[in-house]
Amino acid sequence: MIWEGFTTSKNQLNGLTEVKWENLINKYSRNYTDDSAFIVSSDGYIKVKNQNYFYGPGADGKNDWLTREPLANIIKCSITYEGKTYYGTCPIVMAWVNSNKYRVSLTDHTGFKYVLYTSDGTSPQYDNSHPFEFKCKENINDVWEDVSLVEGDHSITYDFAVNGNVKKGTNGTLTKSNLLTIIKDNTLEKNQCKCYPNSKYDGECVNNAIICAYKNKNNKVMAYIQVPIHFLLNRYGLANLNAWDGNNVQINE
Q1: 76, 94, 90: which is closest to 37 by C-alpha?
Q2: Mean pLDDT across the chain, nearest whole number?
Q3: Where are the domains of the chain?
């Protein structure tokens, strides 16, 4: 996400433009908020909030990314120009590996990171033409080999989950959003996953994500990846304007 101008909230262009950077998180009653792995300053600087967020499961089995509260790792940029405010967001993929002999990643241009609903929270639009595809490389004899689909001693298995929560009540009780569903498809490779969003969205949950756990041949987790998916509402009031592709206009005289 690039704003080709100034990066701080203090600078202005002709006294008309202001830029602000922040985490996209919900703020609830009693000062509860969604959790995030990052701190974003208004000037656009990003730093890790706490290294503990990147740890995998310990001996007690806790901190399993497949079941823990997902992190709201979406960066938001607001640009105010001549009294109007424009927004841009950037979901940040986060990974953890238990050894420097592995490298994991989400293949470029696979899956989707945005789901756009009409202003009434219906008719989701998203690009599911390419399934989420997760890659794994292992350092074997000082050579980084792609072991995503290999079998034998270096084989990898994959577990997938979807998550998303909001905090309810005076105690900030986690309530699962159930906005994503994994599609069972036997035609996919073992490192691929498809999912679809719920048909309705109320604009509340902003930490929806798909999570992939990598396991070695001994069924031990050796890496996780969390892919945030930004659910958002198109604030235009007209359904036909929401559906317009922007390529043609017809005028009836």
Answers
A1: 94
A2: 83
A3: 17-236
